[in-house]
Amino acid sequence: MRRRTLLRAGGAWAGGAWASGVWASGAWASGAWASGAWAGGGPVSIIVPAFPDAPAGLAARLLQPRLERALDRAVIVDFRPGAGGITGLGDGARAPADGATLTLLTPAIVAAPWLSQRMDWTPRDFAPIGRISFTPEVLVVAAGSPYRTLAGLMAALRAHPGTLPAPFDGAWSSAEIAEVMFLDRAGLAARPVAGSHIAAGLADGTLAFAVRPMPWALAGIAAGRLRALAVSAPADGDAPRDAPPLPGVRRFRDLGLEVTIGSWLVLAAPAGTPASVLVPLRAALREAMAAEGLRARLAAAGIAPAWQDGPAAEAAMVAEYRALGRLFTAIGANWRAPSVASR
User: Fold this and answer.
1) I want to staple 266 with a disulfide (CB 3.0 to 4.6 A). Which of 74, 105, 119, 234 is the partner?
2) Reported pTM
3) For residues 311 and 286, is the Cβ–Cβ distance under 8 A?
């Protein structure tokens, strides 16, 4: 299924303060836009490997008018959610490296290559423009659970190896990966429970704990149903500045566990895109991310803004890709073809 949407700046999204100094910089004066796909101010397409109402789709729609203003050209948001995102990621990796087709990368680019033989694309097939967000994962228990700290839960897991139940459906969402990474880093084991209703399972004791995305956890905490024991943080060590607060809840890292998985979004061009195109694209994304109200709108949608420039985002993606390769190999989930794994 393929849905193409053209969104233009205007209406509710048109507000914002726009810096104009970038237009006078050397990057824009270099003539990068004078040829090829950029001649005549042609549009920029952003492939989103998700549905419009998914976090990536919401983020793309919020970003689009700001990026359109910064680039001074139309920006098309192109939703291609097939095969769990593999379709869109493949289309983005194969696009001409001229800056006319970008891709909003999700964690599927670092996880799916190890988990699906259909996925031949890795972070090396993209040139990141910048990271837009990092939404943490939160380890939660029921509000009435006997486990009041992560240390207490770990002690119970250690005392009853492979016995305490935790949700796992094998969909390998960021939350499931974070859960498995926590157990692996701690040298512990839980009993996987498939097909459970997580909120109900925590409430009735069918589940001892769960790792869930920050917005889901915050809703349960606010309603008095859940207690948070630990939160993930990006591998670069920077806490997302605008992430909703969890007072008193420590990061896994603070407790000696490198659980770095979250739901992040990185805007990228195909690998091989020349610097003369990447530089102005990166400047435009930086300007768009600094626009008045965008960070607040992302946070309100449950997408924690966490800016990171292109080179740093590339290094973080490659590091996470390698870390997941080691994790999935250790637990026997690595289905990667040897010829692709060697890349």
Assistant:
1) 105
2) 0.84
3) no
